[in-house]
TrEMBL record, chain A:
GO terms for biological process: molybdate ion transport. SUPFAM superfamilies: MOP-like, Winged helix' DNA-binding domain. GO terms for molecular function: DNA-binding transcription factor activity; molybdenum ion binding. This is Molybdenum-dependent transcriptional regulator. Residues 125-191, 197-263 form the Mop domain.
TrEMBL record, chain B:
One of its GO terms (biological process) is molybdate ion transport. InterPro entries: Mo/tungstate-bd_C_term_dom, Mop_domain, Transp-assoc_OB_typ1. It comes from Paramagnetospirillum kuznetsovii. Residues 2-67 form the Mop domain. This is Molybdenum-pterin-binding protein. Keywords: Molybdenum.
Length: 264, 67
């Protein structure tokens, strides 16, 4: 019953979406050898879209991107694995090797608790499409809730309001690394040159990198700079009305109360 | 991993209805059911299937109260 694959994926503390599991490391390695996302996707048996999404998730969770790619269109351009990406691959293999030794100890029956349950609890994944590795820069405490200011990229800060209880439970202090989770359907989009005058604390300017239409919904991926992307699911009518085509500039609006924080 | 969300309800997936972009997931929470709309990507990413033990995570600021 010991499944080394699960253990290895969960042990890298990659945040909520386990972006540095074996599958994604294999994809990163394929990018390094193939030099393009399209070829890397083929090499590991993924669709281009799935590979692109997986690499974006990895980039979103690292301080600096693991892959530098042209995100212009579905067929993409060349892609390179950055120094950070290479370090990640190396760290993964090192940890995986150590983990398998720990797993062997557990399997020998010396462990007082079920290692699989333990590892699973460490590595919970969530369905939220947006998971950003951030650093807490400021905390404004109220009597019921607190506003937590996060550094996402050099150009983008994120505000999250959480309850005082959560602030205490998660021991959130300035300087702490946290993962900010935002469900794609919570992201509103707006167009225009000026910063939209709305109450939402988070107004992030980006460029549409990808658009996928369904009959009712539309998934839009915004490149927000610094190697990070933000995914929004809005109605197709809304997307058409705003003329959100690939290359269009758009503001992502997120209420601070809709940002969930996760700590390792 | 610990989450700031105050509501973390344990349940079991009883239905998954995939659309083109989003999917509807029904979760049984001790006899009551919770419906969640998530993207298809999330379903694939979590390898979600009927019978899976999951958590329904809801931020306290998102809960509407009726009386």
């Amino acid at each position: 019953m010991a499944d080394c694959k699960v253990e290895a994926i969960l042990a890298l503390r990659g945040g909520s979406r386990s972006p540095v599991g074996r599958d994604r490391i294999a994809l990163l390695e394929a990018v390094a050898t193939q030099g393009s996302i399209t070829k890397a996707a083929q090499a590991v048996g993924l669709s281009y879209k799935a590979a692109w999404d997986a690499l974006n998730a990895v980039n979103n969770l690292l301080p600096r991107p693991a892959v530098a790619a042209q995100t212009g269109g579905r067929n993409g351009g060349g892609a390179v694995v950055t120094e950070d990406g290479k370090a990640l691959i190396e760290a993964f293999h090192l940890l995986e090797e150590r983990l398998s030794r720990v797993a062997a100890l557990f399997s020998a029956g010396d462990a007082p608790i079920d290692p699989i349950l333990l590892l699973r609890s460490l590595g919970m994944k969530t369905s939220a499409r947006n998971a950003f590795r951030c650093t807490v820069t400021e905390i404004h405490q109220g009597s019921v809730n607190a506003e937590v200011i996060l550094h996402l990229t050099d150009a983008v800060t994120l505000a999250a309001t959480i309850t005082d209880e959560s602030l205490r439970d998660l021991a959130i202090v300035p300087g702490l690394a946290v993962t900010a989770l935002v469900k794609a359907s919570f992201v509103m989009l707006a167009i225009g040159e000026a910063v939209p005058s709305v109450s939402a604390r988070n107004r992030i300017l980006g460029t549409v990198a990808h658009r996928e239409d369904g009959p009712v919904s539309c998934e839009i991926t915004l490149d927000i700079g610094g190697g990070k992307v933000l995914t929004a699911v809005i109605t197709r009518d809304g997307a058409d009305e705003l003329g959100l085509r690939v290359g269009a500039r758009a503001w992502a609006l997120i209420k601070a109360s809709q940002v969930i924080l996760a700590v390792d | 991993m610990k989450l700031s969300a105050r509501n973390n309800l344990k349940g079991k997936v009883v239905a998954i209805d995939k659309g083109q972009i989003v999917a509807k997931v029904k979760i049984d929470i001790g006899g009551q059911s919770i419906t969640s709309l998530v993207s298809n990507e999330a379903i694939d990413d979590l390898a979600l299937k009927i019978g899976d033990d999951v958590h329904a995570i809801i931020k306290s600021s998102e809960v509407i109260i009726g009386k």
